[in-house]
Amino acid sequence: MKIRSYQPADLETLKTITVEAFQGVSIDEGIEREYGPINGHDWKWRKSGHVEADVRRDPEGIFIAEVDGKIAGYISTWHDLEAGIGYIPNLAFAPEFRGQGMGRKLLEHALQHFRDLNLTLAKIETLEQNDVGNHLYTSLGFKEIVKQVHFVAPLTSTTEKS
To answer: pTM, whole model, 2 decimals?
Structure first.
């Protein structure tokens, strides 16, 4: 496996990998199960938009895992120098490259990137049902700080008010 910097030509592949990898562990997918597509867009459209946002925020903080010239997966990062915190919004791999230790290597690469920036902490989030992520992150020294509950309320009512 080779780790390289993000290139704009990578975007569509990263979006495809992300949508597939986050099936079953996406907040947007949970919202869709409850309320259906929003404004004509499904959760996959919204999740791929998160990758576009990562690119806009910090393209130099996106690292690509490549195997034999093929994108196997990636990690996106951004940082707040003043706060001393590095953030990892997305980590995803194509199915055929999972379970081979590449996620660990990309995470280690991102953590070193943060150390090189003299940051103090690294932050990553995952859902409770993401057993692989929960195991991997804690094995690299991440500690659960708090649990967060996501609430969603429809802004239109289907019942008439009395």
So the answer is: 0.90
